[in-house]
Amino acid sequence: MQSVLGALTSPIRREILWRIWDDEQPAGTIAVAVRRAPATVSEHLAVLREAGLVTVRRVGNRRLYRAVTDAVQGLPERLADESARWTPAANLPPPGSAVAQTWFAAVAGLDVGFAPETVFAAFTDGDLFSHWLGAPVELDDGWFSCTLAWGTQVRGRYEHVLAPSLIAMRWDFDDDRVPLPGRELVSYLRIDPAPGGAHVEVHQLVGTAEQTEFMQLAWTFVLGRLEAGLAAALGQPARGAAGEQAQVEKSG
Q: Which pLDDT does position 176 carry in this prediction?
């Protein structure tokens, strides 16, 4: 049993065993199937033979290998490829009140010429936030609120903050002109080091394709102000004539 378990610790050997579970094959064919060098496959086959998991049969100048199914009875499902490897388990407890949902997401990204720590402060320091956004932002113990120039009221809270790379927030806003539900929205703002500064990326979860299109525009507008507004707030020149353009994509 120990030798069997030792032989099966290698994922390549498990893959080889599955390939020859009910079909004799030469080492060269097996090597092509598992995308390994023939010499490497020969070494793995030797280990499997020593463990009693594989037999070899000579046919002329060829050696044909086949799994000893009795030695590992009950393993075919575990050795199958990804399309057949996962099978429902029996006697699982009922799911209870668990609910699964699928959401759309809008993703907006921008490269800026500032260090991640500076960009992080742009979203966590109320005065700096107000300056680059161009509207007064109130930040108090993770809660934030803002009224934009055209009257939209935004409010929410930072639920998880990992300086200087991640802010997870829940927020909503009051504006009857936009196609969003009357519930809190969930966003993840990531700030990663990038050549010459940082890469800022927002993942915004929404419920429909229509809402995705709207949030693409909304976050593109916000990030589009970030570089020039932050440069002005810090008294520094923005990179290039107008900074980098925000890039957006959607997924569902």
A: 58
Q: How many CB atoms lie under 10 A from the CB of residue 206?
A: 24
Token pair of 184 as six digits: 């809190």
> For the chain, which ranges sit under pLDDT 50?
76-78, 80-86, 240-252
Domains detected in the chain: 2-75 (1.10.10.10), 104-251 (3.30.530.20)
Instruction: Note the Cα 45 to chain centre separation in Å.
Output: 36
In which residue are the tokens 């707030």 written? 233
∠ at Cα 38 (51, 43), nearest 5°? 25
Full-prediction pTM beyond 0.70?
A: no
Burial annotation 134-157 (CB, 10 A radius, 16+ → b, else e): ebebebeeeebbbbbeeeeebebe
Q: Among candidates 38, 9, 33, which has minimal Cα distance to 21?
A: 33
For residue 28, the one-letter residue type is G
Contact between residue 34 and residue 44 where contact means Cβ atoms under 8 Å apart: no
